[in-house]
Amino acid sequence: MCAFVRKSHFRHVFGSAAKKDRCYEGFNVSKNSVESPYCAVNPKFLAIIIASAGGGAFLVLKHDEVGRLDPEHGRVGGHKQDVLDVAWNPFDDNMIASCSEDTTVKIWQIPDEGLGKTILTEPLLTLEGLHQRKVHQILWHPTAANILLSASYDPSIVIWNLETGEAVVEIDCHPDLIYSIDWNTNGSLIATTCKDKKIRVIDARKGTVIKEGSGHEGAKPQRVAFCGNLGYLFTCGFSRMSARQYAVWKADTLERLALEEIDQSNAVLFIHYDPDTKMIYLAGKASFIHITGDSIIRYYELVSESPHCHWLTNYSASVPQRGVCFMPKRGCDVTINEVAKCFKLVAKGYCEPISFTVPRKSELFQEDLFPDAKGDEPSLTADEWLEGKDADPKLISLRPEGSGGAKTAKKVKKGLGALGKKAPKKTAQAADEEDLEELVKKLKLQVDEQEKRIKALEEKTQNL
């Protein structure tokens, strides 16, 4: 039998916006024109860059602080000029970095209970002295703790060791403005796009260019994502006639594998790559002045065979997005088959959560949709990475019953309580309840296995 339809687990994925009472509103989004998403999210908090007089500031909201914002709600306001980008530490959900027009990068610690009505002005650490112009992009290292990258309009890239507060790598190989940067999977390489229309792959420790090639022909900004587990680079840019395009490149040779025209819009596209599902999400950015731009989030699936990139479908809304940020996979709700979750920021001061889910009738954990994902523990220390070691990200299971699942609490050391005292002995009732829970878990696993066997038999029957 010939297969006329390409097999894919994510063919029917669809986006659905949260109801109005689960959205965030009542704030003024930054009016700066830099190409930034203006927001960042993790399983605990949502950060939004806002317009503020007398210096730059951004909000930090807990996920349950929905509805209209209290005018007296706290904020982070330690920068002297506009904040241009924010990024949560992937290994500490309470730590966030911010960069600004004032040429500095600051590190902040957010308490578990959120900011309340506190205005936070004292950072944990300020990184300054090397960038001479505004800093417009920051990225945490994907596997090493306390390593942070910043890019400036100098144009220069600096990699910082936060344990010492010093710059450990300075990269000065770009002749013009750096448009975007991304790390590869283990953090040994970075890919960049520049105003000179070149794509570069750079050794992150040495700061030397390993490979350089021509990107999109258009003069407008182009962005890049490192799809390291596939060995690809994915870029979005413009043609010579200003049509929006995406392209897929071999990361080691910069050979172009695919080029496709999207449309004639002039909005720059943000790229989010999900290494677990190998899906690409593209979201355009609206102009603050004219409130025009892209109101669509497109999603594609990358594969190793030609044509390498397959369009799945679009999520459309009536209002263009000012910025978009995506939740780490460990923060997605696997019980509803949520394979991705983004927060769409609108210029009028409204933030809307959007869930991308795969429709399935079974309520059991879907292993094919949720392979082990990147966890919140670093694979290396800062010193180990600087010494030349590389390591892939540490993975966790997203199964709710598992020890590293998305719905489980933090692990607690057995035998000792939080104050170092011996834990009390279990009562007979507590022991019976634990035994019952274990039995339920075993039964669920058995049902899961039976469903797999039934599915395999059904496929064999269809082939016959």
TrEMBL record:
SMART domains reported for this sequence:
DUF1899, DUF1900, WD40
Keyword match Cytoplasm: no
Coiled coil spans: 433-460
| One Pfam family of this chain | DUF1899
**Every DUF1899 domain range:** 3-67
Leader sequence segment: none
Q: Does the keyword Coiled coil apply?
A: yes
Q: Which UniProt keywords apply?
A: Coiled coil, Repeat, WD repeat
Q: Which PROSITE patterns match?
A: WD_REPEATS_1 (PS00678), WD_REPEATS_2 (PS50082), WD_REPEATS_REGION (PS50294)
Per-repeat ranges for WD:
76-110, 128-170, 171-212
Which family does the record claim for this protein?
A: Belongs to the WD repeat coronin family.
Question: What's this protein's name?
Answer: Coronin
**Organism listed in the record:** Porites evermanni
